[in-house]
Amino acid sequence: TLEYARRMTFVEGDPGAILLVEFQGDSKKRLMDSLNKLINFLKKHKLGTAHVAVIKPHEQENVWFIRKAGLGLMMGTKEARKPIGFVEDTAVPAEKLAEYIREFDAVIREHGTEACYYAHASVGCLHVRPLLNLKSKDDLARMQSLADHVSDLVLKYGGAFSGEHGDGLARSCFNEKMFGPKLYQAFKEIKRAFDPKNILNPGKIVDAQSLTENLRVIPQGKSRSLPTFLDFSKEGGFDAAIEICNGNGVCRKKDSGTMCPSYMVTSEEEHSTRGRANALRAVISGKLDKKEFTSKALYDVLDLCIACKGCKGECPTNVDMAKIKYEFLYHYHKENGLPLRDRLFGNIESLNRLGCALAPVSNWLVSALPVRWLLDIFFGISNHRQLPHFAHQTFTDWFRQHKRSSSKRENKVVLFNDCFMTYNTPEVGIATTKLLEAAGYEVILPEKRCCGRPFLSKGMLDEAKTRAEFNVEKLFPLVEQGYKIVGVEPSCILTFRDEYPDMINDARVQTVAANTLLVDEFLLSENEQNNLNLNLKSAKSRFLLHGHCHMKALVGMNPTLSLLKMIPNAEIEVVDSGCCGMAGSFGFEKEHYEISMAMGRRKLFRAVESRNDDWQIVAPGVSCRQQIEHGTARKAKHPVEVLAEHLE
Ligand code: SF4
Ligand code: SF4
Q1: Does 115 lie in the same domain as 30?
Q2: Atom 2 (ligand 2): residue with closest C-alpha?
Q3: C-alpha–C-alpha distance, residues 139 and 153, integer Å
């Protein structure tokens, strides 16, 4: 995934394996001496293809970040054969490890497969995971045979079958072989003495099932196939999209990143990505009745998923719960009806258009306390929230009237004027236009409709598809003429790339998607090709940057960061704030208000509040800016606004 790819800074070339050696000591000189001694030794004996000294703390952090995620990353392979753990924990005396592993490897190859190797070489415990497809009968037989051979090998080398992880369900069936009948009998007696009714972990250590019984994987042809609206073919089907979750639980991390905001604030398994995947797995495996797929119970499990795509970016196997949730909601609403509030939020474009036409009366109306109470009671829109402001002059009206500043070149670029820019925050559209014109582009506003994101997030997939088809129809000819489509609202513009291909089976979609960019990406790539000549004045304040979740998952923060760095003397800090908690309409919904605020309070609000007015808060997402203002009373700006303010 993007996040892991970015952190592979310590890998040179394309090595078959990496050996990490860590030195500890109390003086830098001693550490450097030891390190250099090792590097010289390896070079002298021509060992290894590259010798990388990782000295800076943030680089060391990258090493351990990748190491920790290594297993999940390997499990993330899209191949049917995955690295399976069943002989992964053998340990032999360290001095015999090389010889043992050579034989182990030969056994694996004799079985017609290969393996991944990782972990603790220094203590003779290399985790070896053969690649097998547990849905295939042949590979199940291979699994049993491999385990038999490897257990022989472990005995031959005087090792242990479970070096670190314990026996569990996978290895208990080998305990009699490993320990001998006498000891095994003693184990049984101890178990009986302390647990006569066999209620504590039955089937572990003694009286175990065979290796291939009770596997988590749903056997081939046994998963329930559900017709889907979205195209899940690249995941291998809807069931495969759910089964990608291998249960390793990285989504239960709480210290960094975005995944998974609902778990971070509730600490409840059911509100983690894994919890959701497991609930869905119970339906597709047939453990639960098919009608449970559209049940309130499953709705509740998915309810706090804010479709942030944190899992798509950070889960080592790229579980895309947002996409799964869109599909689920589509079926759920078909079965149970679409709530009025969802209909309203989905149709935000029409509501905004109406609000602007009636401004300023509409603004007065939605901020009047009695109206807010009525919205709360009858529509479930939290009265704690102020609905977004409707612009007196929409961005499109401004654009029609504005005089183009003279430009140096006549390149054209298409600006996708999303609904929020058009109706709620025209200042962002104005700043974007000024910036692009200052950079020498003529800005074209296309004929377009809402990107479809508000419909998608409510599972209104028919409506989202209609919008997507309209936009592709109108944008494709412009792309054909060689123009790029740029946008400023990450969740809108990235819909073209991430969701349109899943909704429309038309080659033109891929072309449009490939030519649609965040304005940050566009300007950065122009700069890299020496096409950008922005004249910017020195920074007056420092910048605290909060990233948008979809952007972090699909693009990363580098384009925005690089763009802001073009401002002379800019001092920028990116806050590891995770999700702001607003997530489109989620934070407006009465029953979600407290959770939404808890997500914001977790890190973001504190980061903002701890910076004085010398700091400008910068956030590309409109929802994030709303949440920051609501939670901290500080006004955040879009990065393009900041850049436009620094134009000479
Ligand atoms: S969803 Fe969570 S448990 Fe499942 S694979 Fe991803 S990080 Fe692991
Ligand atoms: S999309 Fe976000 S909220 Fe939903 S499961 Fe993934 S990380 Fe959690």
Answers
A1: no
A2: 308
A3: 20
Rounded CA separation 142/145 (Å): 5
Query: Amino acid letter at 634?
Result: R
CA distances from 167 to 18, 85, 142, 516 (A): 28, 12, 20, 51
Q: Which neighbouring-strand residues pair with 487?
A: 518
pLDDT for the residue numbered 479 = 97
Contacts of 24 (CB under 8 A, 6+ apart): 31
Which amino acid, one-letter code, is at 225?
Answer: S
Tell me whether residue 324 is exposed, middle or buried, using C-beta atoms within 10 angstroms of its C-beta: 0 to 12, 13 to 18, 19 or more: buried
Q: For residue 151, what pLDDT is reported?
A: 97
SS3 138: helix
Has residue 216 been placed in a domain?
no
Tokens for 265, please give them.
Answer: 């604030």
407 falls within a domain: yes
State in Å: Cα 240 to ligand 1 middle: 14
Query: Token pair of 51, please?
Result: 């010798």
**What is the tally of structural domains in the chain?**
5
Residue nearest to ligand 2 atom 5, measured at CA: 273
pLDDT for the residue numbered 68: 80
Task: For residue 234, give both structure tokens.
Answer: 């690249």
Mean pLDDT of 256-280: 96
Are both 44 and 103 inside the same structural domain? no
Mean predicted confidence (pLDDT) in 360-377: 94
Q: Could you tell me if 560 and 616 lie in one domain?
A: yes
Instruction: Tell how far the Cα of 516 is from the centroid of ligand 2, in angstroms.
Output: 25
Q: Which of 67, 92, 112 lies at the terminal end of a domain, its last residue?
A: 67
The protein residue with its alpha carbon nearest to ligand 2, atom 8, reads: 260
Whether 409 and 524 map to the same domain: the answer is yes
Q: Which of 1, 244, 250, 320 to mutate to test the pocket of ligand 1 (most atoms within 8 A of CB)?
A: 250
**In 267-320, where does DSSP find H-type helix?**
273-284, 296-303, 310-314
Of 117-126, 219-228, 351-360, the range with the highest mean pLDDT is 351-360
Residue 522 belongs to some domain of the structure: yes
Q: Which domain holds residue 273?
A: 233-337
Say yes or no: CB of residue 262 within 6 Å of ligand 2.
Answer: yes
Q: Does ligand 1 lie within 6 Å of residue 246's CB atom?
A: yes
Mutate to test the pocket of ligand 1, among 248, 264, 309, 324 (most ligand atoms within 8 A of CB): 248
pLDDT band at residue 223, thresholds of 50, 70 and 90? confident
Instruction: With CA atoms as reference, report the closest residue to 275 among 258, 251, 239.
Output: 251
Comparing C-alpha atoms, which of 509, 458, 516, 466 is closest to residue 488?
Answer: 516
Atom of ligand 2 nearest to the CA of 310: 7
Q: Which ligand is nearest to the CA of 76?
A: 1
Ligand nearest to the CA of 251: 1
17, 34, 67 - which closes a domain: 67
The yes-or-no verdict on residue 163 having pLDDT over 60 is yes
Residue 407 pLDDT more than 60?
no
Amino acid 357 reads A
